[in-house]
What does this fold into?
Amino acid sequence: MATKTATSGILENLPVRLRNFFARYPPQIYSANALGAPKVPEGAEALAPAPSPYTPSRSSKAPKVDQSAFSMSQAFLRSDPEHPNPFLPYKNPETGRWRGAMISLRRQNELVKLATKYGVEELLPPSRKSTVYRETKAVEKGLRIRGTGIGQKVKGHKWERTLEGRLEDRKKAMMGMPEMIRLWKQRGHGRGWKKYPRK
It folds into this structure.
């Protein structure tokens, strides 16, 4: 009972937008604290932290993150079947049809910013825009700097993308050059020569 009065005392000092949200979705039912901590299912493999981007291998053949592994950030985004989370899509158990989130991502972000400003973010339901989710996701992804990640395809200019292959071809051609010169001289300086480079 004491926590209920303390919560109601906090809610009185909030802006109208947050008060209206908490009136419609009471923190006692919908907040992340009310849902409890996410649990790791038995036999699930934890998602390994992302490797450091500072590695020489940048190819698309590099090892990728296992998508089927248990993800703490995905476990954070959960909902009680009796009281569906307004920030997440909801699957109707009877019809099997999905309904979109009641509150859009833009409005979720605005609510999270407002709640953080007033120090009541933990009273909001779990959301992709919440600080806890973003921190968990950042830990899973590891340090990411654009254009350096393993398995990330970096578009770049065409000459940058094809440079490695061209250098390899050039190296092979230079290694076979003495044999090519010998054949050129043997055949009479170009007569009957078929190996002219293509343009």
